[in-house]
Amino acid sequence: MTEGGAQLLKTFAEHWHDKALTSIDGENLSYGDLWCTAQSLANTWRKEGTKTGDVIAFKLANSNRIPCIYLACAIGGYVACPIVPTLCEASVAENLDTVKPERLITKIEISPVRASASPTIEPVDADRPFLIMFSSGSTGRSKAICHSLNNVCGSAAAFAERSGFNR
User: Fold this and answer.
1) If residue 159 lies in a helix (H) or strand (E), which one and from where to where?
2) For a 10 Å CB count at each end of the chain, is N or C smaller?
3) What sign results for the dihedral spanned by CA atoms 113, 119, 120, 123?
4) 3-163 topology per CATH
5) Given pLDDT bands bounded at 50, 70 and 90, which one contains residue 116?
6) 49: CB partners within 8 A, 6+ apart
7) Contact 16, 28 (CB under 8 A)
8) What is the pTM for the complete model shown?
9) Predicted local confidence at residue 1, as pLDDT
10) Sheet containing 144-148: order of strands
């Protein structure tokens, strides 16, 4: 993650530590929990041998843990690859064969971690691959589409501005 982006998210986590960022099925995820959990995941994966640029694929139902995975990927310089949970086995196998992930997450049980000592976050080039998504495959086999962190952040900023979220 870029140094500026990491600092911005860290500032949000410090300022709004206990404020709910998302709420799914009655479970809240605070800014502080997101930040601490994502750092913990990124560092755990690094200790287990995941390297910058490795693909982390995940096939999960909608959950508060998904933002933690995305942020952990941004922090660690990993490439996030969500797999639609309703895809048939053959499509999942094709997608996984295309991206050849270092790690596949199909179940995640993580408790928010309140880190006493925050690990060091090394800046990652925001133009490197960050997200691989697949097309619907309406014209044949699904196609992998790669986005950089700058692409994703730029799209989010444009959406926020056009939608009035930044007012």
Assistant:
1) helix 149-163
2) C
3) negative
4) Rossmann fold (3.40.50)
5) very low
6) none
7) no
8) 0.86
9) 60
10) 103-105, 55-58, 79-82, 129-134, 144-148
